[in-house]
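With this grant's support, we have paired protein sequences with backbone structure tokens. One protein thus recorded is set out beneath this paragraph:

_____
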Amino acid sequence: MLAGEIGKPHGVAGEVYVLLLSDDPGRFAAGDRLVHEDGRSLTVAQSRAHKGDRFLVKFEGVDSRDEAERLRGQIYAPTADKRELEPDEYWPLDLIGCSVQDRSGTSVGEVRAVVPGPAQDLLDLATPDGGRLVPLVKAIVVEVDLDHKRIVVDPPPGLLEG
């Protein structure tokens, strides 16, 4: 489950700004483990709230501004900490890498990220014509088969065109 987005470093001792994207602000307590989008395991050394939905977080072993700069990206809660999902609800990390095809079975592309949105999340697709954003709504995303890492879409005219 997506917990947050690590942004720029804060200061010179390894702290980073983290935008909270989880429904659980407790995910950034000292000792908590998170998983970076590149697969690295990160342990929170300390954190404190900063300006609403942001935290200043220091991770164990990250002791310089240069090391903190290399942390930019999404961080996830470990799989064991995931809550039960409702029907038609998915963890963003499970959707990344899924092949996407239209109803006729024609390949459209592959999910490279899930972009949080105010009304609904968006699938960020890598297509032969470049990146495309597809709203993650039942009217367009008609089937998600996580066992086969496959998503079927029924896009309105022009959605996937360049």
